[in-house]
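T9SS C-terminal target domain-containing protein
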Amino acid sequence: MSEDFNSYPAGHLNTDYINNTPGQGGWVTERHANAAATVMVTPETGRGNVISFTTNGNFSNEYVIVKQNIGVITALWNNRTAGNNVLKFEYEVFGTGIFIAEGSILHNTINFITLCFKSTSAYRIEARTVGSGVTNQTLQSYTSSTFPYNTWHKIELFYDYTAKKAYYYIPNLNLFKVDNIVSAITNLQDNISVHGSSLKIGSVVKYDNIKLTALPSVPPYILSANELVSAKFNMYPNPATNVVNITNNENMLVEEVTVYDSTGKQLTTQNYNNENQIQLNVENLASGTYMLHIQTNAGLAVKKLVKK
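Predicted structure tokens:
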């Protein structure tokens, strides 16, 4: 399944907001009774169409949920290639103002695996795995000034049905989480959803490029994101002023290094000729904290750099 909303005319994704009738693309919508939150197909420069969640109402917790019609995802899963027992749910999300933005894999009517952006009184990004024994696990805490507003973030959620594990990954923020599923699930998830809640007037949540894929295994880059590769790299001096040395003792070869700032914005990418020891010039970076994504022949390593 792949959805970029580009084939739909601008306007309501679905005019029925009581979860009764499928709209364009089989999407159903639901919101509070008498609430004013809407989800609209809107054009965006450089992207084509996206769906935008907004409100002009005054409920304390305006929300609108978008999910596939009952049975659609189950039918897709039941017709997958045999052995493809890893479900990948990916999407892109953008938020501004006061909001909660969630993308979920559902089992029956329960949000079984959820990634949540909260810019309410608690500024954080959470992973929530029902059945793991632990809920609302904070991936990253922020303040009102550091929360990653006004930026598109790609989200990747995986459910490994055989190994009973859930994986959460936000590449540009270097946020990763893996959970064990301790409760038995006899049938795999039967739906997916995205939604905006706690919306205030002037707040906007957008989604784009929603995809669902059945894979034979969890991709290596996800497994490597669990700091297996990162721990093998040394970086000095740190804090740094002009140049950072990046080395490892296992002959892992560096292909490129991408620098992200504390908001997740990509700043620079430097290519290397498969070297196991490199120097990165950081002289032009402002003082602050940065994340270095080091692409190697063994996977992705991520290291934190402090620039004086």
